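Subject — a protein and its fold
Encoding — discrete vocabulary of local shapes:
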Amino acid sequence: MSEHAISQLGNRYHEWVRTHPNAATEFSEAIEDVLDDAGVVYDRVATRVKGWPSLKKKAKKRDADGAPAYPDPWNDIHDLVGARVTVFNSTVIPQAIDILGRSFTVLRSVDKAAETRISGSFGYGSHHLVLQVNDSLEELAEYEGFTFEVQIRTVLQHAWAEFEHDIRYKQGPKPPTPQVDRLFTLAAGLIELADQKFDDIAALMEVGPAPQDSVEINAETLPGVLAVLLGDAFPRSRSEHIRFLAELLEANNIDTLAKLEALLNERDIIRVREAMRYRYKPGQVRLIDDLLLLHFGKEHIEATAELGDRSDRRKRLNRRLKQLHGQPAR
């Protein structure tokens, strides 16, 4: 690219960053909300906005034949905003891909782990999505039409990739020795085996313990209680969100198995699902939060608006309450 084109790209980049100072946080929270509401169990979501030196370097890249790799860098480079979702076992990755695909427009989906396996080797494992913001998420309305990248990988795949990148970065232009390459390959094979064993453990733990009438409703007993009351009808949630659910129930005096069972009646579940028109099957926490909203209305909002780590929870609950009553959500 010419220096003039780079200068124009820089002006556009710095204007975008100035206009969207909280982009990383806003995309992280939107992705977390989508995954949480669908009951996808993950480790964490990390999002960053690409720095100018990195974007400029990428914009200057050329193909093997000398042609620009990104002729229109502002539109051709898709990871100005990049998010990484780490999960505990690989069986969750298809769930995360499906849910994100229901909330954003999928422009590209590449399974890097599968590519590595096809090549007959061990190494980098991750699923890459290029997504475009559409009108599905109100919290990202100002980004509608914007394209960004999401990487989904297990925590073990992430550990391998981070360590491998760190070692190679420290080497600079000097390539690692064959012995180092061999050890990385061996470690990648062991990580793939460990991921398979984590998948086996997750499958064995699918069935929770059967609760008794004497069991108290709290964060420790809720997973087993919900396994019995809801079965596999709705995706289970992360442990920290189960603790949040316990607080929601306590705030509404749902402290016995009988009260929780009454709340989870089939008629109201159908009513909530029809009113909310979920884009995907809701997770247990989201479903019960909406059932509490249906039963207790404004009382639920006042009792729980300050719970959790979302500063806009009150606004979101009021919007959902209107939707439950058949009023426009916006």
Remarks:
- The two ends are 44 Å apart (CA to CA).
- The CA atoms of residues 151 and 293 lie 34 Å apart.
- The chain has two domains: 3-200, 222-324.
